[in-house]
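hiii, so i know i said id send this last week but things got crazy w the move. better late than never?? heres the sequnce for the chain we talked about at the cafe, plus the structure i predicted for it. fair warning i was half asleep when i ran it
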Amino acid sequence: MLYLPLLAVKAERWPSGRRRSTGNAVYPTGTEGSNPSLSAILEFEPDTAVLAVLASNNVGENNKGYLEILKPLADKGQEKTVADENSDRK
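okay and structure toks below
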């Protein structure tokens, strides 16, 4: 008579956790949850004239997001830069 050892195999009706029967994670790259990140990333080059005016510490940004002249500016070109930037922000 031939006796074969019995292998104890526990079969679950559904794999426990977030794993498939092959052992792979269900979400191999992860999920983002209920608040996913934006699918489009906007990249732009900042205007160097605006950066120069901001670096002079004569202009700042107010609580509404607009540029505000804090001290007298060097020339009318800087005032025009501030006005143009504020019109773009509306």
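btw The first helix runs from residue 48 to 55. thought thatd interest u
miss u guys!!
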